[in-house]
């Protein structure tokens, strides 16, 4: 079992192409089952000195392949970006 605070310190990496999806920002819970349906990651990488990328990604739980000591390995089927306001 993991606490959310532990998971938020692990970087999310796609094993297919090595893409980094940042760190877990939020969870989507299925209220009918009480289970986690998706993790939401936020990429806080800086694109330049002044601007940063604040893209978020929704990753269904079935795409998580391994939770390690430092990273969470996923295998993306279809990438879905979430618009931030």
Principal-axes shape call: globular
Tell me the distance between the termini: 33 Å
Average pLDDT rating: 84
List the secondary-structure elements in sequence, H or E. HEEEEEEE
What fraction, in percent, of the residue positions are helical?
Answer: under 10%
Unreliable parts: none
The rounded Rg comes to: 13 Å
Number of strands: 7
Commentary on this structure:
With 85 residues, the chain is mainly beta. 5% of the residues lie in helices and 47% in strands. The protein has a seven-stranded mixed sheet with strand order 5-6-1-2-3-4-7, with no helix packed on it. The termini are far apart.
Architecture blueprint of SSEs:
Layout: H1 4-7, E1 11-14, E2 20-30, E3 35-43, E4 55-60, E5 64-67, E6 71-74, E7 81-82
Parallel strand pairs: 1-6
Antiparallel strand pairs: 1-2, 2-3, 3-4, 4-7, 5-6
């Amino acid at each position: 079992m993991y606490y959310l605070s532990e998971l938020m310190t692990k970087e999310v990496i796609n094993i297919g192409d090595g893409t980094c999806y940042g760190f877990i920002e939020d969870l989507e819970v299925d209220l009918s089952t009480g289970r986690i349906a998706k993790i939401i990651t936020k990429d806080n990488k800086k694109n330049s000195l002044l601007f940063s990328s604040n893209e978020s990604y929704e990753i269904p739980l079935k795409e998580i392949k391994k939770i390690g000591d430092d990273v969470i390995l996923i295998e993306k089927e279809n990438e879905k970006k979430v618009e931030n306001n």
